Amino acid sequence: MRNESLWVVAAWLLATSPMQTSRAQVTREVTDAAGRVVTLPSTVNRVADAWHANNALVLMLGGADKLVATTVQAQRQPWLRKLYPRIDQVPAAFNAAGDLNVETLLGARPDVILMAYDGALPRWSAAVEAYHVPIVLMPNTSLEGLKTTARITGTVLGPREAEVAEDYIRYFDANIRRVRRETERLSAGQRPKVLHTSSAGILTADGLDTVIDDWIRLAGGRNAADVTGNGRPVTLEQVAAWDPDVIIVGTAPNQLSRKAILEDPRWREIKAVKNGNVLVNPSGAYLWDRHSAEAALQVLWAAKMIHPELFSDLDIKRETINFYAKYFHHALTDDEYSSIVNATAP
Amino acid sequence: MRRWALIAMILVPLAVLYVSLFVGRFTVPAADVARILASRLWPIARDWPASAETIVLQIRLPRAILAMFVGAGLSVSGAAFQGMFRNPLVSPDILGVSAASGFGAALALLLSRGAFALELVAFLFGILGVGLTYLLARTYRSTPVLMLVLSGVIVAAFFSALLSGAKYLADPDSKLPAITYWLLGSLNGSSMQTLKLVLPPIILGGAGLMLVRWPLNILSMGDEEARSLGVSTDRLKGIIIVCTTLITAAAVSVCGIVGWVGLVIPHLARMWVGPDHRALLPAACSIGATYLLLIDDVARTASASEIPLGILTAIVGAPFFAYLLRKTQGGWQ
Questions:
Q1: Residue A196 and residue A267: Cα distance in Å, rounded?
Q2: Residue ranges of domains in chain A, CATH in brackets
Q3: CA angle, corner B259, sides to B256 and B260, nearest 5?
Q4: Is the CB of B114 less than 8 angstroms away from the CB of A198?
Q5: Which of A237, A255, A275, A283 should we substitute to test contact with B (largest number of B Cβ atoms within 10 Å)?
Q6: What is the pLDDT of residue B330?
Q7: Contacting residues of B for A268, CB less than 8 Å apart
Q8: What is the pLDDT of residues A47-106, one digit of tens each?
Q9: What's the rounded Cα separation, in Å, for the pair A270 and B257?
Q10: Integer Cα distance of B35 and B53 in angstroms
Q11: Helix B115-137 crosses helix B233-255 at what angle (to 10 degrees)?
């Protein structure tokens, strides 16, 4: 556990020191996901993170005390709040719909804004850039993109955070290699069909071209949903036609959704239900299955769940406890571990 | 009403229902479907997979039945309202039932309640919305049509604002898409249990409307004329409002907002059987049931991901209605 009050004081000192208010003379350049070369002050001490998933990543890289503006959505993640209670005090300049309160943001005097890149600049970019606040965009559709996001975020935050990012990427790559070593030789027939239901309900599926499809494939499965994009509405009959071997229930209220599937007689004939392979996706500082720091754990967890026979030596609990200790400086208790792996509130 | 028209009114929806059970994304051989259906009536050796039976009897059948009742209910409500308001532009949600139900559903989704709670809350809010409209419109112990329409606009605006508020507060990764999809309309939630919950109010409301078919003819001549003929217009209006509200609130609560059906099907029915409500209401039921059933067949089979009903009813229905409008020059009114 860190000494929170000390950090808050440190952040306050940084935030109010006169050095920070004058425009930094020395600058540096960062290339973002949109291919734009963005000019930043050489030291970045005040960060506005408009991408809710990325707030946990900033915490992991050790830069959370630099957050001066965040999103309503980030403040709703129970585990992020537990790991970093100060997130509640950071002004939420970005609402749940991703829109911005310009005055809150400018009042927070950020050196830089971090944002996900979905092919276009955010709607509010012109309003913000008029005040010379640079926006750095980061990719959000694949595991590879997640690594780039960690790298860019680290670079923006500073050399210390950049080092953590590189360390994290090495760890992530090692996990990917570990999984791929076992799964790459699997033939199509040896790959179970995996249905990942999205957060909008059990009859919405995460399809192709998503980070979810990415880790399903890596973990030695096939995405049962041959639709494109996240959270596509599907019929129960279509689910039956896909007949998935494994169903992974994504995001809250996962346990309720899992129960709804298991108790509904109409799902009974589906293979995953018949064989007891309806799982709940873990959720921590952010949802493991999406663009989260814990995606590095997700690839291990998914591999173990889809191919228990190939990964009998893999201890998810140990990996998880080590991960949170190393990257979030938090020693998980047994209860806390099960809260994360079962996606229940801490 | 000619006899063949009556027979068509009953047989066509049933035939479409039967055919609908054969189509879907899950491949069940037609022979199996036929034998699964027949096995409910007389004993047949079961040599088809259990999954096929689940698909046909527990997924397709309840959904198709629900589509028919919702389609019939919305259409007959629209027809009754168009007569009562003496205005062909009126749809069943004129008194604010959709907006109020929509807010109720969004609230239930926001609080992560189950499907049953969602339907119940949406239904109750629909009733509440129309109740408010009625109270607001009540002046000097009567309910003038103009007051009803204006009150409906006010109540709908109020609940739409609350609905937007619920969307604003919703989690954009989970709750917001759930609310959005719900509002676009879908019969995805249908099961035998939903039928038990939703059919009673629809049948009750429908039967009520059928009973006042004849006085509705008089009411559609105007309040003054109806009163001079000895019809208690306010009581009649009250009955019609209660019946249509039962129907539409139940329909909206289970399948979201399916626009267009209640507005346009009455016109198709009028083209077919004329403006006499005694024939118009049954015709609207029949056409509405068939129409929504066919639309839902498309919604659940056209692509791997489900197409929201509200989109299809208008995308398929609008050009068709435009064609009829041009052809008949609106002469049926």
A1: 15
A2: 4-168 (3.40.50.1980), 185-341 (3.40.50.1980)
A3: 155
A4: no
A5: A237
A6: 62
A7: 54
A8: 999 998 999 999 999 999 999 999 988 998 899 999 999 999 999 998 877 778 888 888
A9: 30
A10: 10
A11: 150
- The model carries a pTM of 0.79
Q: State the complex-level ipTM.
A: 0.71
CB contact under 8 A, A233 and B114: no
In a domain, B64, yes or no: yes
Best B118, B169, B171 residue to mutate vs chain A (most A CBs within 10 Å): B171
Does residue B210 have a pLDDT over 90? yes
In this prediction, what percent of chain A has a pLDDT beyond 70?
Answer: 92
Q: Which residues of chain B make contact with A270, given a CB cutoff of 8 A?
A: 51
Rounded to the nearest angstrom, the minimum Cα separation between A173 and chain B is 27
Question: Do A233 and B305 lie within an 8 Å CB cutoff?
Answer: yes
Which residue from B minimizes the CA distance to A251?
B174
Shortest Cα–Cα distance, B294 to chain A (Å):
16
Domain count, chain B: 1
Nearest to B100 by CA among B166, B186, B148: B166
C-alpha separations of A235 from A249, B49, B118, B196, B299 in Å:
16, 20, 19, 21, 9
E strand spans, chain B: none
On whether residue B268 sits in a domain, the answer given is: yes
Domain residue limits at B308: 15-38+50-328
Greatest Cα pair distance, chain B, in angstroms, is 68
Q: Smallest CA–CA separation between B69 and chain A, in Å?
A: 20
- CATH (domain of B155): 1.10.3470.10
Give the residue from B111, B174, B194, B312 with the most A CB atoms within 10 Å of its CB, the best one to mutate: B174
Which of B50, B55, B170 shows the shortest C-beta gap to A237? Answer: B55
> Is residue B10, in this structure, part of any structural domain at all?
no
Contact at CB, B174 and A269, closer than 8 angstroms: no
- Residue B5 maps to a domain: no
Q: What is the pLDDT of residues A295-325, one digit of tens each?
A: 999 999 999 999 999 999 999 999 999 999 9
Query: Is A235 close to B25, i.e. CB distance below 8 A?
Result: yes
The partner residues of A38 in beta bridges, in order of sequence, read A30
